[in-house]
Write a structure and sequence with these properties.
The protein is α/β, with parallel strands linked by helices. It has helices spanning 2-7, 12-21, 62-73, 93-102, 124-130, 144-151, 155-168, 194-209, 225-233, 237-246, 274-279, 296-299, 311-314; strands at 32-36, 79-83, 106-111, 134-138, 179-183, 215-218, 261-264, 270-271. An eight-stranded mixed β-sheet has the order 6-5-4-3-2-1-7-8. Strand 1 (32-36), helix 3 and strand 2 (79-83) form a beta-alpha-beta unit. It starts with a helix and ends in a 6-residue tail after the last helix. The model is unreliable at 1-7 (pLDDT under 50).
Length: 320
């Protein structure tokens, strides 16, 4: 298959997806406008696909934030998903949240939880609760050793304290505000079944720490960024790619995030997903390429740009 794909000028993933779809992979709408507001972060996690960290200076400007909000206002896209790095480090983050909420849009924020303990960030839980922001919080595992190995010493303890504060404000409780956790495998293997792992998380975090949450998302580590560097250093890149490809599940294609989402990079460039953003694979050349030229009608059914990294989203139960 590798030879055939190469001879046609397409990747192995593109060939498999087209065989299943009968045509190139295309978007089916835009339910979510995702804005990556910068790569700066208070941590440098080993699995981070954007290679975020304290030394990263890329940051979405106020002008670009304004254009994102204008695109949201001029469309019927119901959800704004704000991510990073640690998105809270962008000085325009809170204003972005407030204006999107004023429009009546659903707002999601991707948080690493430990950001609450950085200077000037202590009131973030209350800010989130007061403005009805849905949270997607990274917690690589439910045991201290697993989390600290990936995120640094003390990360687990801070995460537990942060979750308790959010619970006290109504997050992750029955009939409360949405607080979903995210699991990533600590190494070069696929995540276990999501439902089984969610039950483990709820039991362990509930019984040992009195912590509750809404649900758990499991994601395969993408073979890009910092995790790809790890795979190369450990001489596991080829075997990991083979593992992802062998686990390709055609049933995941309908739910791929790229088919329902538009990603905006910190510089305003448009991408099919946050992973393509990291790789510099901007949207199809026949589409508007910058948020300043945002036109939903020209993007709704766009052809998705794919590569073999996309096997990370279609392996096993998939990552949606």
């Amino acid at each position: 298959m590798t030879v055939n794909a190469a001879s046609k000028g397409v990747t192995r993933f593109e060939e498999k997806a087209e065989a299943c779809e009968g045509a190139p992979l295309r978007a089916t709408g835009i339910d979510v406008l995702q804005a990556n507001v910068g790569f700066g972060c208070n941590m440098s996690c080993k699995h981070c696909h954007v290679e975020a960290g304290p030394s990263r200076t890329e940051m979405m400007s106020d002008e670009t934030i304004s254009k994102v909000l204008s695109a949201l206002s001029d469309s019927d896209i119901p959800t704004l998903d704000i991510t990073g790095g640690s998105p809270e480090l962008n000085p325009g983050f809170r204003g972005m949240v407030l204006k999107a909420r004023e429009m009546g849009r659903r707002v999601m924020a991707r948080t690493n939880l430990t950001i609450f303990f950085e200077p000037g960030m202590g009131d973030l839980p209350e800010f989130y609760a007061q403005n009805g922001v849905e949270l997607v919080a990274s917690l690589p595992y439910y045991m201290e050793s697993g989390v600290d190995r990936v995120r640094g010493d003390g990360a687990f303890a801070k995460s537990i304290e942060a979750l308790r504060r959010l619970n006290s404000l109504g997050y992750g409780t029955e009939d409360g505000m949405s607080l979903n956790l995210v699991y990533n495998p600590p190494g070069a293997f696929l995540p276990p079944a999501q439902a089984t792992l969610e039950a483990d998380y709820k039991r362990e975090l509930g019984e040992k720490f009195g912590v509750g949450f809404t649900g758990l998302f499991t994601f395969s580590n993408m073979p890009i960024g910092r995790f790809k560097d790890f795979l190369k250093r450990s001489d596991n890149l080829d075997s990991y790619m083979d593992k992802l490809e062998c686990a390709f599940n055609p049933d995941t294609l309908d739910g791929l995030m790229c088919r329902h989402l538009m990603s905006v990079g910190w510089d305003g460039r448009l991408y099919d997903c946050d992973f393509n953003l990291v790789l510099g694979l901007s949207v199809d050349e026949n589409c508007p390429g910058h948020i300043a030229d945002f036109d939903p009608e020209k993007l709704l059914n766009r052809r998705i740009r794919v590569g073999d990294h996309c096997f990370g989203c279609t392996a096993g139960q998939g990552s949606t």
